[in-house]
Amino acid sequence: MSRQQVAVEPTTAREERERVMDAFRRWGYLQADIDPLGDLKPEAMPELELTGAEAAAARKIYCGSIGVEFMHIPDGARRRWVQERMESRATEVDRGQILERLVRAEIFEQVLQTRYLGTKRYSLEGEAAGMRLGYAVGAKETIARMRPHLLNSNANAAVLSAAETSLGDTEYVASCRERINGTRQWLMDQLAKKGWQVVPSQTNFVMIDMTRDVRPVIESFRDRNIEVGRRFPSMSNFLRVTIGTQPEMEKFLVAFREIAATGSSKAA
Q1: Domain 171-262 carries which CATH code?
Q2: Which of 106, 180, 201, 217 has the smallest number of CB atoms closer than 10 Å to its CB?
């Protein structure tokens, strides 16, 4: 083997690796595993029908649980920035620092909640509301008929993963269920004492029959910095109230009695 051959082979190997990586940088996101429900199938791409160790490594990077489309970006520096972060080894997570910041943020939230009870604000809880996950419970036959109408965009992988993890914490789920059930029953008992009709509920909210359109009632609560549920056209006389903490529901009940006592849209 000549020196020239020795010099050429490494270069050829690098070029081959770069060719394979380039294909996955461009099209790998089309075969990324980003749909936990399994409805979004990977697209067939002739450019990605590659074998060998280089292809396996590239597929692991660009066809995993993260899909990234970036090769169309005209700025070369920005493309390289994305590429380097996808292809470099992830740094070890400083779990202690993350925990410390989460604790600080949670304490700050508790201070705001105590001082501004019921006031609408930007918060960690508000961010979590953006990760809301809806679900349906029913017979297998009913769910099977509903599934074709499922939208792939109604929840992302982070939400589904968080939901599965949360449900796996059976102790926390049980404590939440106990708290919600207890507070909900307390509220329903207080309303029943005054003769208010409440739709039987096993959820984290109740529907109260206001015997009149709830739009002015909702506005009256809003004037008191208390947010209640929206008006439902099919149940226009019912006020939707989400079950919060005991102090929150006590504050709601005080405002409810004031508004109800007036018999009008606004309390004096």
Answers
A1: 3.90.1150.10
A2: 106
